[in-house]
Amino acid sequence: MSDLRAEFTDAPQYDLLLCNPPQLAGPPALGVARPDRYAGPEGVDYYTALARLANTALKPAGRVALMQTSLSSFAAVRQ
Question: Which of 7, 38, 48, 66 has the fewest CB atoms in 10 Å of its CB?
Fold first, then answer.
């Protein structure tokens, strides 16, 4: 388990990153108070962080698997 906002300094080492990130849109204060539920103004902050993390934390043939349990932010995630 990792904090997506932490920096990865080690060489890539993972075959798979599995994530069910927070997806609710809300003001930054909510993201600080409830990072388990709110993911920035558009609800995609964790997806952006995961994309950066994947570049440094995955082996060359590694994969990212995302779970989305709410359809409320589906359109924003597709963009």
Answer: 7
